Amino acid sequence: MTNTVRLTMAQALTRYLTRQMTVIDGRMVPLFGGVWAIFGHGNVAGIGEALYQVREELPTYRAHNEQAMAHAAIAYAKTNFRQRMMAATSSIGPGAVNMVTAAALAHVNRLPVLLLPGDVFANRVPDPVLQQVEDFGDGTVSVNDCFRPVSRYFDRIMRPEQIIPALARAMQVLTDPAECGPVTLSLCQDVQAEAYDYPESFFAERVWTPRRPRPDRDELATAAEVLKSAKKPLIVAGGGVLYSGASAELDRFVEATGIPVCETQGGKSALTDEHGLNMAAVGVTGTAAANRLAEEADVVLAVGTRLQDFTTGSWSLFKNSGKTIIGLNVQPFDAGKHRALPLVADAREGLVELGAAVAGYKAPASWTENAKAGKVEWRKAAAKVTAATNVALPSDAQVIGAVQRTLGSEVIVLHAAGGLPGEMHKLWQAGSPGSYHSEYGFSCMGYEIAGGLGAKMARPDREVVIMIGDGSYLMLNSEIATSVMLGLKLTIVLLDNRGYGCINRLQMATGGANFNNLLRDSRHEVLPDIDFVAHAKSLGANAEKASSIADFEAALGRARKSDRTTVVLIDTDPLISTGEGGHWWDVAVPEVSVRAEVNAARMGYEEKLKLQRVGD
Fold first, then answer.
1. Average pLDDT, the chain
2. What's the helix, strand, coil split of the chain in %, to 5?
3. Are 174 and 107 part of one and the same domain?
4. What is the CATH number of the domain that holds 281?
5. Mean pLDDT, to the nearest integer, of 270-297?
């Protein structure tokens, strides 16, 4: 006879989560680092009560915004290289829908997060309840159906026993390196409180470790043959290198073959910036050293990357018509992109076996030395644009240089949207794997502070530095208060260019008038004069404004010594971006316009379109 224990569905769910484990560096630790929760009707009575019972084993953290708490959970998983994760629970209605943006972010970035939104009554007796959306033609619809397209797995729990197969499937998705992404279990509020006799075996401890598929022999042989014939090979390292823990294997592969490496936003820090064959950033936000090699490469080994448009220059960067791409990726969908030769495997295992298969191969010395020389020249260019000056409004690049000089390369630096990702990708010099944290898959404004909080929870021993513009700061800053409440110190570098400077520059580049991006160009009666220092202090943080780069560096030094979250503000120029490096990006320009500037931009746009590799 099967032994059972009578629990509510919510109690069974939380108990199950406490039993999921993983092994990191030989030490067994809980797979879930905790649960973020904002309670309301729909989750306070059910899962709220259940979380209270396991609060010591599975900590519950209170946030101020549902989107932000899910961002923090996602950043926690990213900083842990997907080896650990968190859950987030909300009330029904707006609380649930607030997490949809975060679900999309996790989906795009292939990051695990367990979302547990409250839902309407399964029995439908009290319908329509407060905050319930009614579909006139479908009685099964709730707002939580919004999660379906942005979840790797979605389930609505309408009977208490359904949580058993639902959690089994959820864990398979959350821990699978190929399928990894957000899981949404939509929890009907009456069912959360319903009891069921659950088998005790359901709560047996389970250890989840990363699956490491090895390459198919035929795919490996084909890839090796192509790579050994390469005269101008190039490696593109993506986030999969970091998630696989393959940095050391990549280093060995590069040292053995002499093949230069460039990095995507997600893959930056896979090798240290000091590595002589690390050309750093590639693509639209890339370095001159990387992009000139990409234009000539005859074989491109793409490791753990989605090959999105910023990496490929909207598919106009890799100009060699005879090139071959080898897609080393754990996900077949990514491995075959752009007619690549697929090499479906874990990045670490794939590099090990590919290295053995091409043993003795060396890239031509002229190609390798050319790459190294380009790296030296790029470092000179980068040093020039990041150098300190006494200008009234410094550039983003000069602020980045000041942060690098003052805080060093071993901090975890985090950013997400606006002009900073382009400048950071080119100019930041990462010192160790994972020290560069970029959310540029979804490029979600508002991720930064919440993401920094999640990163700090994952690495409490590291300094976490958040680079953020005034636009993103104003969108979502509430978790400053959460960081203070939890005693998790962050350093927030706030660059105030008084608007959306990045998109203003893009608007100008496509012939548009300065319109609705900078505050001065938006409809207004009075221009805002926001006291960011006072605002940050009101949330419990330390804060100060710097009047120059020298003043800014001194303020950063004080922030480093502080044990409390500190915001350091500096005004910046909204019109300056680094001209060195970079590549064209496809942003459609209107075919006709009354503005001569737009028509001129369209002519240039049509010329660039001719460079795209249509069908590749």
1. 97
2. 40, 20, 40
3. yes
4. 3.40.50.1220
5. 97
